[in-house]
Amino acid sequence: MLVNQIITATITTTTTITTTTTTTAAAAAAAAATTTTTTTTSTTTTTTTTTTTTTTTYYYYFYYYYYFFYYYYYLLLLLLLLLLLNFYYYYYNYYDYYYYFYYYYFYYYYYYYFYYYYYYFYYYNLLLLLLLLLLLLLLLLLHY
């Protein structure tokens, strides 16, 4: 808050000059007419106008306090957004976890299915190979 203050001060100075002349007591009777008292009064009036611009400390205090809470407000909104994203990813990963859990078991059994399938064909191929070898041996034996 900027405060514009116009201060008008009126300074009145009064100067009193008193001059006293006194003769001695011996010549008082003769110079009674020569005793003179002079009083001079002079009055001077001075008017001074001063314009001051004052910036109060409270203005800056509340100014920075306002911006502190202004940015603090956005920081709180950012924190709230991160918190919501955290909950979102938590629940997303929660279901994602179960998705991969079943996905894992699917491939787990799928793996064992092909594992046994592989060994089945492995032994099946060995069996076929043995059968072919026996057939070849039989043909050779029959030929001779």
Automatic annotation (TrEMBL):
The membrane-spanning stretches of this chain are 71-90, 97-115, 121-142
Name the source's superkingdom: Eukaryota
Q: Which UniProt keywords apply?
A: Membrane, Transmembrane, Transmembrane helix
Organism of provenance: Dreissena polymorpha (Zebra mussel)
Does Transmembrane appear among the keywords? yes
Task: Specify the protein name.
Answer: Uncharacterized protein
